[in-house]
Write a sequence for this structure.
């Protein structure tokens, strides 16, 4: 085998491998080898070296033995030959996986189910081996149990921090070499985003270790401009009820995850309280999900406010989020040991559009109830548009919420056939007074009396599977 074999690997076919766990792992290893080969070739070009297809390395111009460049050429050749040896093993796995790909479905649900089934079928030794070989993949792979993903992601924080610190140093060195300190290029923006991701990691490290009931289900500092993360309160692997909150404009891990985790914690507590009052001994897990690049007002450039206005007026970012969110929902159901787990999607603001698009693309097979609140539109008028059963889609619009009345994406969802929940002050069936929600941000927050606002109470009873207790508008 030589480098030609690696270059002609069928990259397009790798997408078809991602339906099963073995296929995902093979695809991951193939992409990793090709990425490392690209890096080695760039190193060679930078030093006027040439990597031949058989793995040997030569200099473009003659160099003397013992010259630092000669030493580098020898080290580079060792690295390339090791890569070829590793590729020989991966190639056999690749051809085997390709021969089986027609037996596996390729949609998000099939992938999550297949991943979950294969993971459970592997021995503990095989599972540990996979975690050693591809921790970043297993830790964020939908269909893998939270009990595996969370410790794996926590273990990765230090290595990701080191990688981002190296990136920041490298970019800083590039800035010093560029004319005008990089002001005429995007290099400075790269450094700004690397620094923000380091702050994201610090926030996740603190939040994930603050309470033993928290699970770090997603920690991805590579896929987006900002970091992606999801934190569960409670155990989604065993819970009877699971909710996922999807946020909107200006949400990011560093500035938003602490507040979202606090809201998810209070939501879970209220849902469990209502279940106990109803005489039902059932468990709840609530999840704060920031798994996409939400439109941001603050960025490294002078026109970020304008870009945020442009982004939030279009559906492109929501469309990108929809596939990731759909996979996440299917993964929760596939990893659950509870065959009748009840899953609720909570879409706020621009996140409601992302949620609706995910449901329309197949996530509805994994979701039982949906609440849209503070929504600028969801491109749906009736439950069947979303693939959700009748009387299982709810909407809320607080007084003074101009975003909810925007109607940019298919009109105001509170003026459809969806069931409208109250956000006004009132007393709930359990005799507790709840204050009103006002504006765009108060829906999931507590009032001055320490209780969730009426909107938060309604979220909780829907999450708990007790819609008969909801207060309608």
């Amino acid at each position: 085998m030589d480098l030609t074999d690696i270059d002609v690997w069928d990259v397009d076919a790798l997408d078809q491998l991602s339906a099963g766990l073995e296929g995902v792992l093979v695809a991951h290893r193939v992409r990793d080898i090709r990425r490392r080969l690209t890096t080695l070739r760039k190193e060679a070009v930078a030093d006027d070296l040439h990597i031949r297809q058989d793995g040997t390395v030569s200099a473009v111009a003659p160099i003397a033995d013992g010259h630092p460049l000669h030493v580098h050429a020898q080290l580079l050749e060792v690295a390339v030959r090791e890569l070829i040896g590793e590729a020989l093993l991966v190639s056999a796995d690749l051809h085997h996986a390709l021969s089986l790909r027609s037996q596996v479905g390729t949609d998000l649900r099939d992938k999550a189910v297949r991943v979950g089934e294969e993971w459970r079928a592997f021995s503990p030794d095989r599972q540990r081996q996979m975690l050693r070989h591809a921790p970043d993949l297993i830790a964020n792979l939908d269909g893998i149990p939270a009990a595996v993903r969370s410790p794996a992601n926590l273990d990765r924080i230090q290595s990701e921090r080191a990688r981002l610190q190296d990136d920041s140093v490298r970019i800083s060195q590039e800035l010093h070499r560029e004319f005008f300190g990089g002001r005429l290029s995007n290099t400075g923006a790269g450094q700004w985003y690397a620094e923000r991701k380091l702050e994201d990691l610090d926030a996740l490290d603190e939040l994930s270790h603050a309470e033993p009931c928290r699970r770090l289900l997603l920690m991805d500092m590579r896929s987006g401009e900002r970091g992606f993360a999801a934190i569960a309160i409670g155990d989604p692997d065993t819970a009877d009820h699971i909710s996922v909150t999807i946020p909107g404009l200006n949400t990011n891990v560093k500035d938003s995850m602490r507040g979202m985790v606090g809201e998810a914690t209070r939501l879970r507590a209220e849902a469990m309280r209502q279940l106990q009052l109803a005489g039902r001994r059932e468990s709840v897990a609530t999840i704060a999900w920031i798994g996409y690049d939400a439109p941001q007002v603050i960025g490294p450039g002078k026109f970020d406010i304008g870009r945020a206005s442009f982004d939030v007026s279009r559906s492109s970012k929501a469309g990108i989020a929809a596939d990731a969110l759909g996979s996440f929902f299917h993964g929760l159901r596939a990893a659950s040991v509870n065959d009748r787990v009840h899953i609720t999607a909570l879409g706020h603001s621009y996140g409601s559009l992302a949620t609706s698009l995910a449901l329309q693309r197949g996530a509805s097979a994994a979701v039982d109830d949906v609440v849209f609140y503070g929504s600028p539109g969801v491109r749906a008028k009736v439950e069947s548009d979303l693939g959700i059963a009748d009387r299982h889609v709810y909407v809320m619009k607080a007084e003074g919420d101009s975003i909810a009345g925007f109607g940019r994406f298919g009109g105001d969802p509170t003026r459809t056939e969806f069931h409208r929940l109250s956000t006004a002050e009132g007393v709930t069936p359990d005799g507790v007074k709840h204050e009103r929600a006002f504006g765009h941000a108060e829906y999931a927050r507590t009032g001055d009396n320490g209780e969730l606002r009426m909107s938060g109470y309604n979220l909780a009873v829907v999450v708990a599977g007790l819609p008969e207790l909801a207060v309608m508008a």
User: Anything to note?
Assistant: The two ends are 69 Å apart (CA to CA). The first strand starts at residue 49 and ends at 51. The CA atoms of residues 322 and 358 lie 4 Å apart. The chain has a mean pLDDT of 88.
